[in-house]
């Protein structure tokens, strides 16, 4: 009971800190001319901020508590992963695709999450009890996800050049473009079927495929670092990566913003949330193939050794 209350307290404090720091960051974004929020939208923003902060706090704390790292190294990894997932990849896409994102907006879009990126990980590491190493972190001879160069490059190529573009473009067609408002926002669909639409897109903008393949490679790199640092069975790290990619990146769509209407935000949330979750799971499944159960068995050995080292009660 005590440990449960401590975890709930840590989650509540981390949620509050996330909400405050994210709100401070939004002050860096300049007002958009002609866009004002109604009272209903302001209330929705407050509810969305609380929900987003609670989700982000839970995901960050879960990552911290299951990590092999501790202290400053864990803070650095968590901050880098948070900024990459929450801001960098989504803003790269926004800059390329969104017609109403202008050059002067770019510094603010990239800087507005810096307060929460820099402030949340140290707090989560402290509240999560991971300032110092644990005996479970020290596992001599264990190398999670060992891969040779050929295998690593082959899996990277499959994931970034095939799996990610397929999921990205398929979700865009079957989910995002079902919204007439979203289709109009991006200039409309260019065909009656998925194949005719993307045949047009690729023929008129070949770079878009290169962009998504590159983003897929960046996603894989981030996932690999998270998986390498997570202890426990393969599905623990895989589920965390899937939730980070699908939810932590996209729960910002819960907040009204001056660049998207509510309908566009909803369809973007469904589109990228679902495709990124599936992609994160694919990464974990493929990278852990052949090593499933290895980490869990090694952890169990360490736990048994720790129990054997404890002095017997008299």
Molecular structure report:
By secondary structure, this protein is an all-alpha fold. The protein has one domain (2-132, 148-309). The chain has twelve helices and no strands. It has helices at 2-26, 39-65, 71-97, 106-111, 114-127, 149-174, 180-185, 194-204, 207-228, 234-248, 262-287, 294-309. Helix 1 (2-26) packs antiparallel against helix 5. The protein is globular.
Q: Which tags fit this structure?
A:
single chain, about 325 residues, mainly alpha, 12 helices, about 70% helix
Helix content: over 70%
Number of strand segments: 0
* Average of the residue pLDDT scores: 84
Beta fraction of the residues?
under 5%
Distance between the termini: 26 Å
Number of domains: 1
Count of separate DSSP helical elements? 12
Structural class: mainly alpha
Question: Whole-number radius of gyration?
Answer: 21 Å
Element order: H for helix, E for strand: HHHHHHHHHHHH
Shape: globular
**What composes the largest sheet?**
none
Could you name the ranges where pLDDT drops below 50 across 5 or more consecutive residues? none
């Amino acid at each position: 009971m005590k440990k449960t209350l401590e975890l709930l307290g840590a989650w509540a404090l981390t949620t509050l800190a996330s909400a405050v720091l994210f709100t401070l960051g939004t002050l860096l974004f300049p007002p958009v001319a002609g866009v004002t929020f109604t009272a209903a939208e302001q209330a929705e923003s407050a509810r969305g901020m609380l929900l987003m902060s609670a989700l982000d706090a839970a995901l960050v704390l879960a990552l911290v508590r299951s990590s092999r790292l501790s202290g400053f190294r864990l803070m650095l990894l968590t901050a880098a992963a948070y900024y990459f997932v929450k801001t960098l990849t989504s803003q790269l896409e926004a800059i390329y695709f969104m017609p109403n994102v202008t050059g002067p907006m770019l510094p603010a879009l990239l800087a507005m999450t810096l307060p929460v990126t820099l402030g949340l990980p140290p707090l989560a590491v402290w509240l999560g009890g991971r300032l110092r190493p644990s005996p479970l972190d020290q596992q001599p001879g264990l190398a999670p996800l060992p891969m040779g160069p050929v295998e690593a490059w082959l899996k990277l190529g499959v994931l970034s050049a095939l799996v990610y573009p397929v999921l990205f473009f398929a979700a865009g067609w079957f989910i995002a473009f079902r919204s007439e408002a979203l289709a109009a926002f991006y200039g409309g669909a260019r065909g009656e079927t998925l194949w005719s639409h993307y045949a047009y897109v690729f023929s008129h903008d070949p770079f878009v495929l290169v962009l998504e393949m590159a983003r897929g490679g960046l996603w894989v790199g981030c996932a690999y670092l998270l998986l390498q640092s997570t202890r426990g069975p393969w599905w623990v790290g895989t589920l965390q990566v899937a939730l980070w990619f699908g939810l932590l990146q996209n729960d910002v769509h819960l907040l009204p913003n001056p660049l998207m209407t509510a309908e566009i935000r909803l369809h973007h949330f469904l589109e990228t949330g679902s495709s990124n979750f599936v992609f994160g799971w694919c990464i974990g499944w493929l990278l852990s193939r052949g090593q499933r159960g290895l980490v869990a068995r090694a952890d169990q050995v360490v736990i048994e050794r720790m129990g054997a080292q404890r002095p017997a009660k008299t």
